[in-house]
Design goal:
- The complex is a heterodimer of chains A (269) and B (428).
- Chain A is mostly helical.
- Chain A folds into 2 domains: 1-110; 122-269.
- Helix content of chain A is 79%, strand content 0%.
- Chain A is built from 9 helices and no strands.
- Chain B has 428 residues and is α/β, with parallel strands linked by helices.
- Chain B has 3 domains: 3-160, 2-Layer Sandwich (Beta Polymerase, domain 2); 167-309, NAD(P)-binding Rossmann-like Domain (Rossmann fold, 3-Layer(aba) Sandwich); 336-427, no CATH class.
- In chain B, 57% of the residues lie in helices and 13% in strands.
- Chain B has helices at 18-21, 32-38, 64-76, 83-89, 95-106, 118-132, 138-157, 167-179, 194-205, 218-227, 238-242, 261-270, 302-368, 373-399, 404-417, 420-427, and strands at 6-12, 43-50, 54-61, 91-94, 186-190, 210-215, 231-234, 247-250, 276-280, 297-301.
- Chain B has a 6-stranded parallel β-sheet with strand order 7-6-5-8-9-10. Chain B has a 4-stranded antiparallel β-sheet with strand order 2-3-1-4, sandwiched between helices.
- The two termini of chain B are 16 Å apart.
- The chains are: A mainly alpha (269), B alpha/beta (428).
Chain lengths: 269, 428
Amino acid sequence: MLFTLTYILYGIATSAYLTFFISQEKKIRSTARCLLFGAGVLHTVTIVGRYIEQGHTPLTTHHDTVSFFAWSMTWAFLSFRWRYQVKNFGTFVSLLIMVLLTVGAMSSTRVIELPPALQSNWLPIHASIALLADGFLAMGFCSGVMYLLQERELKKKRFGLFYTRLPSLDSLDNLNHHCLTVGFPLLTLGIITGSFWAKQAWGSYWHWDPKETWSLITWFLYAAMLHQRFIAGWRGRRGAILSIIGFIAVLFTLWGVTFLLPGEHSYVN
Amino acid sequence: MSIDSILVLGVNHKTAPVEVREQLAFTDDPESPFRNMKTIPGCTEFCFLSTCNRVEVIFASSNQEETIRGIKNFLFAGSNVSEKEIDNFIYLHKGSEAINHLYRVASSLDSMVVGEPQILGQLKDAYRDSSQRDCTGVVLNRLLHKAFSVAKRVRTETNIGGSAVSISYAAVELARKIFGNLKGKRVLLVGAGEMAELAAEHLINQGISEVIVANRTLERAIKLAKRFNGKAVGLAELHEQMEIVDIMVSSTGASDLILHQKDVKPIMRQRKNRPLFLIDIAVPRDLDPKINDLDNIYLYDVDDLSHVVEANKSEREQEAARAQRIVEEETLKFLQWIEEMQLTPTITALRRKANTIAQAELAKTLGNFDFSSKEKKSIEKMAGSIINKLLHDPILFLKNTHSSEDKSEKLDVTRKIFALNENSEKDS
């Protein structure tokens, strides 16, 4: 019930952002912001509700995981907005949040009992850090998409919908950089806490479960990306494409592994 | 005050060539328009506007023909235009047309470059100068203030001043879409031509920190570099310089390409892919168009920039149509105000007439009888309420009109029925 309300509120906020994107009416933007903030608050309440319902951190079902992912993205965005503004970023971010929540809404909310081995304090720490990292990396993805759209119009010299509405390439590139520099350390921390949890549950820090393997692949991708950015100047277009590829790896780690490759992490049967 | 007493007379870039306009500028003696026009018969209020594209007088007159003749004579007194030719160059707008024209001028719809922002400031200055010298009155004060707010409305509700309509400004706008802020960026001018100079000027206004000039002859490079406090280099150093600048404006007279795609590739590696904006304003072109295919390089030649300008211009035209609708709407509003100016005096005249009659009749009646003061008061009170009740409906009838035609007709009828016109004529 709470989730439905949250979902509807996000839906309204997203359509407000889209209306603003088309009309560029400033009043609509502040409305959209307030709506998204409201949705974020309601979403927090929803997650707390799930916590009380389940008796432990609600990060063990697919529904809850995706919902938390969307939540962390919302708050990552709102906290960013508080620090600095990027024109029309909200439209892209709210659309992606909506996609995530729609996936969450379609998956079952039935709680599966957690095996005793996995009941640990590491669960909330590991899962929330990992998903918070995903939230920032998702924003990096949005900025990458925006960069490519703006770059395309500048290269083709044909100015359509995006030229006036999107910010300069420079600020999109900076945004991308910010998202990665916040997201990557969180991702690293997520993997480290995960291995501590594995040690506690299964006795070894690392045992090549598909989820672990894929997080490591994702981690290497982002590490290489940042390294090349600092050393070889892989910025701009290349940086944007890489942050999109990186995010696809994130999604594969989250979903592909869960649905396609069986392993200890699968919370869907 | 009738609407037709508001007029605009003048010349602009559409009606008169610059040879004629420059003779009407009054730059030698800026006080002379105010001094002279005050003495023109019938000219009750005026505002004198003179810019490089127009010289015009907005005025209100109680004796149109004479005032118009007086203003024409004054404007053209110092010119070699004969009296017969004058009418070929001027425009004269009356009433609603004059208001419409003024609003168009204020909102920059009548400008040479539609949407350019300077004209509003010039009109404000003109108004200030005229009002300080007591040349404007109730009508023009209101009209000009309205014109300013119409211009503001047009600015905020349409995108008329939104996009660049000159090549060098278009280049600046593109640079800002690539780099965001131009503060701290460096520009390299290749070739020391006039166009390069103009573009550099625009860029410097946007906060560019350093200008480097590369030219075949170092002497000219040094000269231009001095103007912008920059440094001069030889053409041989071009590749080296390209590693450190952000924007390059090329305008050499070379007959061949001076920079090929294969030259730029290693430069980009050196630059660590920092974006580079290349502007090629030379004809024939200096830069290989294939350079644009490289990542993080944006190459625009003269044609590309003119396409941007053309697209912006056509956008401005659409916006101008929207602005015109605002102007029409506001003109109607002003006409309404002028008419209300007539409604109020009519009602006042009506009440005055009724009061005069009542007072006269009261004096007659009360004189014949011996009433106590209390009785007198209630009889006076009764007369007053009879007037009020009787006039109540006619006044409502006057006020409840929506179309302006209807209103002037009603006013006319009312004035005739109550013989208000004769009365005021007798009074005056």
